Amino acid sequence: MIDQPTNIGILGGGQLGRMLIQSAIDFNLEISILDPDPSAPCSLIAHSFVHGEFTDYQTVLDFGRDCQLVTIEIENVNTDALKQLVREGKRVWPQPEIIELIQDKRQQKKFYLDHSIPTAEFVLVENSAEARSHEHMLPAFFKLGKAGYDGRGVQKIITGEDFEDLLTGPGLLEKLVDFEKEISVIVARNQDGEISTFPTVELVFNPQYHLVEYLFAPARITKQQERQAQELARKVIKELNMVGLLAVEMFVDRSGTIVVNEIAPRPHNSGHHTIEGNQTSQYQQLWRAVMNWPLGSTASCGSTAMVNLLGEPGFQGPAVYQGLTRILAMEGVHIHLYGKKITKPFRKMGHVTLVETEGQSLEEKARIIKNHLKIIS
């Protein structure tokens, strides 16, 4: 008999939660959402939507007490409340202690060192004065220990003068990796210890805002690099002893060596393409993992690409999708809009998955979408 809780809670009601609900419908799972935005993407499709702060102890505790199982679609949640829910017998996946570790980039880095997981050279610093004493590490990135995401809380430091405007707060100074590619592996693990990875993908970031613009799957790397990336992802989730879904972002440096950059204990932007591109999507795989069901096949259905749809610079207000008709006419295109009524510069508004077809290359189609589908107001 398959264990199937009647009420599952998700902390966070953004686009990841929205796609988790869309997948949960296939299993007749009833999903409750907690989110501080009353018009969050999940607000109209959740079985139950609770307007409240997922960082507030009592709010999370009260929400979780009404659920049989709780998971997340965002890391910035109150882990003390989640720990209390575990003490009260609730199932919380991933485990609160792991969420807490990953919330702090400083603790992440120490975890890598303690478990012999290759990562970029770094030093922990408490303030700008201490960071300046490590000028020999430049060029480097300064990363705030907490509260950074989607490029926020990250600052590139090229010369000593850049320390003058350093972000305030404890963080880490990480030596810049001279990388050839940025790649990612989505890995899942259930309570029985079964582990499954998705094929490695290649990411192309916006250099100014550190957001993914394009994704190509499979990654254009060697077979040896593919094996190394897969092994690293398995090692990370196994060493964490984590139940759930984990995105492991990595660099391939100029010598071909792979090092771990950061991890995220939830569905991830680098796995959106799996909805159409793999036999099991990352969203269905999360449900399989947290329910302790058999994990699904991650076999690829062919070459795919993903284009993030970001709000255009200079526009803020009701979203208008310019050029949508042209993109809908393209073969192999799958459009996912996130239900966000208001656009802002570089806000994630949707994504487009491209499945390989005859004719134009995936790269060419991705450029067409990027150049012609604009989100304005």
Task: List the main descriptive attributes of the protein structure presented here.
single chain; 377 residues; alpha+beta; Rossmann fold; Dna Ligase, domain 1; D-amino Acid Aminotransferase, Chain A, domain 1; 3 domains; nine-stranded antiparallel beta sheet; 11 helices; globular
Short description:
This protein is of the alpha+beta class and 377 residues long. The chain contains eleven helices and 22 strands. It has three domains: 85 residues, Rossmann fold (3-Layer(aba) Sandwich), CATH 3.40.50; 55 residues, ATP-grasp fold, A domain (Dna Ligase, domain 1, 2-Layer Sandwich); 198 residues, 2-Layer Sandwich (D-amino Acid Aminotransferase, Chain A, domain 1), CATH 3.30.470.
Could you describe the 3D structure shown?
With 377 residues, the protein is of the alpha+beta class. The chain folds into 3 domains: 8-92, Rossmann fold, CATH 3.40.50.20; 121-175, ATP-grasp fold, A domain (Dna Ligase, domain 1, 2-Layer Sandwich); 179-376, D-amino Acid Aminotransferase, Chain A, domain 1. It contains 11 helices and 22 strands. It has helices at 15-24, 57-65, 79-87, 96-103, 105-114, 128-132, 223-240, 274-277, 282-290, 324-328, 362-372, and strands at residues 8-11, 31-35, 48-51, 69-72, 91-92, 122-125, 140-144, 154-157, 171-175, 179-189, 195-197, 201-205, 212-217, 244-253, 258-264, 304-310, 317-318, 320-322, 333-337, 342-343, 348-355, 374-376. Strands 10, 11, 12, 13, 14, 15, 16, 19 and 21 form a 9-stranded antiparallel beta sheet that branches. Helix 2 packs parallel to helix 3 (79-87) and helix 3 runs antiparallel to helix 4. It is globular, with a radius of gyration of 20 Å. The model has no long low-confidence stretch (mean pLDDT 94).
